């Protein structure tokens, strides 16, 4: 790693002020950033640790939505969200491994927008609102491609607010070495609409599968997908799986997610 | 350099660290507590697992500065007060849960955390909890057996492999 200093502000306001330095970078749980720094793929002068900011911790229910502080670790979501939004808790309980879940945060995952990360699929399928230090952004506007989001320089994800669906499930086909999703599909059924978000599959990062959403909104059953096909165009093609294989997995994972949704 | 202070295995320790100093480096190089091993340095293998405020973390993927004020437990603090092996360590020995032993500190720390939240885990739960701890010698079978034995469950019907 190149040398850098670490600051540990106690409030969002102090963190935002510290991040106004253009050579500063926010540090969440570090489960992606620290390996990136070790590989010398980033060279910030200063890391602004968000782990000591109490206002970004924990979760609360408000008006049919579950609001989770951006600094909340996956292990906390896995246990404390289980009664309120079980599909989201189940997703959190299968990110990485137990030690990673004790450090990695939802805000870090959403801000990084890794194309194979789990949380972006949950946020997009749930129609979540990404709350930052300065504004609220709808998930549909927030995710803008692989490692790309609507966040401005120095903007912090302070919370994510998830509308709670009637039924939901996340089905992940695990890439066994990294434990990221080779393909993961999050299906969320609301009273009037079904939303389907796919992670791990596309060069464009997390995205909605609108044809499946229409079919499932009319008939919420895996059978409703029978006549649909997924194009392999622009899907990820690497040593772990071809684009065609990923296209196949998208449909299979979606079907399983629908069948298991509760 | 920044001064950090934390409690390790019940003893308060301080040291001057750079921002980039990993908790694993602080333990091994500054404090000479070399029981915590570095296997991969990419947060895959889990040999560097320690507890920070009671939760397992990969100490190679956490900065020492982030452990300011924390309660840290390492393998050096696991033995009984008289120096004898604790229940988990003894079970690993009894059931041949190690060969080269390199991954064992991380395995023991991960097991200690598991048994605290789940005192009688099923075999499946043990295997899932070990997802972040890699052993290249044993094939895991005897590690799982040792953990089940450490939890007080009867492992006499599990065949050795």
Automatic annotation (TrEMBL), chain A:
<dbReference type="InterPro" id="IPR002346">
    <property type="entry name" value="Mopterin_DH_FAD-bd"/>
</dbReference>
<dbReference type="InterPro" id="IPR036318">
    <property type="entry name" value="FAD-bd_PCMH-like_sf"/>
</dbReference>
<protein>
    <submittedName>
        <fullName>Carbon-monoxide dehydrogenase medium subunit</fullName>
        <ecNumber>1.2.7.4</ecNumber>
    </submittedName>
</protein>
<dbReference type="GO" id="GO:0071949">
    <property type="term" value="F:FAD binding"/>
</dbReference>
<dbReference type="GO" id="GO:0043885">
    <property type="term" value="F:anaerobic carbon-monoxide dehydrogenase activity"/>
</dbReference>
<dbReference type="InterPro" id="IPR016166">
    <property type="entry name" value="FAD-bd_PCMH"/>
</dbReference>
<dbReference type="InterPro" id="IPR016167">
    <property type="entry name" value="FAD-bd_PCMH_sub1"/>
</dbReference>
<feature type="domain" description="FAD-binding PCMH-type">
    <location>
        <begin position="1"/>
        <end position="167"/>
    </location>
</feature>
<dbReference type="Pfam" id="PF00941">
    <property type="entry name" value="FAD_binding_5"/>
</dbReference>
<dbReference type="InterPro" id="IPR016169">
    <property type="entry name" value="FAD-bd_PCMH_sub2"/>
</dbReference>
<dbReference type="InterPro" id="IPR051312">
    <property type="entry name" value="Diverse_Substr_Oxidored"/>
</dbReference>
<keyword id="KW-0285">Flavoprotein</keyword>
<dbReference type="InterPro" id="IPR005107">
    <property type="entry name" value="CO_DH_flav_C"/>
</dbReference>
<keyword id="KW-0274">FAD</keyword>
<keyword id="KW-0560">Oxidoreductase</keyword>
<dbReference type="InterPro" id="IPR036683">
    <property type="entry name" value="CO_DH_flav_C_dom_sf"/>
</dbReference>
From TrEMBL, chain B:
<dbReference type="GO" id="GO:0043885">
    <property type="term" value="F:anaerobic carbon-monoxide dehydrogenase activity"/>
</dbReference>
<feature type="domain" description="2Fe-2S ferredoxin-type">
    <location>
        <begin position="2"/>
        <end position="78"/>
    </location>
</feature>
<dbReference type="InterPro" id="IPR051452">
    <property type="entry name" value="Diverse_Oxidoreductases"/>
</dbReference>
<dbReference type="GO" id="GO:0046872">
    <property type="term" value="F:metal ion binding"/>
</dbReference>
<keyword id="KW-0408">Iron</keyword>
<dbReference type="Pfam" id="PF01799">
    <property type="entry name" value="Fer2_2"/>
</dbReference>
<dbReference type="InterPro" id="IPR002888">
    <property type="entry name" value="2Fe-2S-bd"/>
</dbReference>
<keyword id="KW-0001">2Fe-2S</keyword>
<dbReference type="InterPro" id="IPR036884">
    <property type="entry name" value="2Fe-2S-bd_dom_sf"/>
</dbReference>
<dbReference type="Pfam" id="PF00111">
    <property type="entry name" value="Fer2"/>
</dbReference>
<keyword id="KW-0560">Oxidoreductase</keyword>
<dbReference type="InterPro" id="IPR001041">
    <property type="entry name" value="2Fe-2S_ferredoxin-type"/>
</dbReference>
<dbReference type="InterPro" id="IPR012675">
    <property type="entry name" value="Beta-grasp_dom_sf"/>
</dbReference>
<dbReference type="InterPro" id="IPR036010">
    <property type="entry name" value="2Fe-2S_ferredoxin-like_sf"/>
</dbReference>
<protein>
    <submittedName>
        <fullName>Carbon-monoxide dehydrogenase small subunit</fullName>
        <ecNumber>1.2.7.4</ecNumber>
    </submittedName>
</protein>
<dbReference type="GO" id="GO:0051537">
    <property type="term" value="F:2 iron, 2 sulfur cluster binding"/>
</dbReference>
<keyword id="KW-0411">Iron-sulfur</keyword>
<keyword id="KW-0479">Metal-binding</keyword>
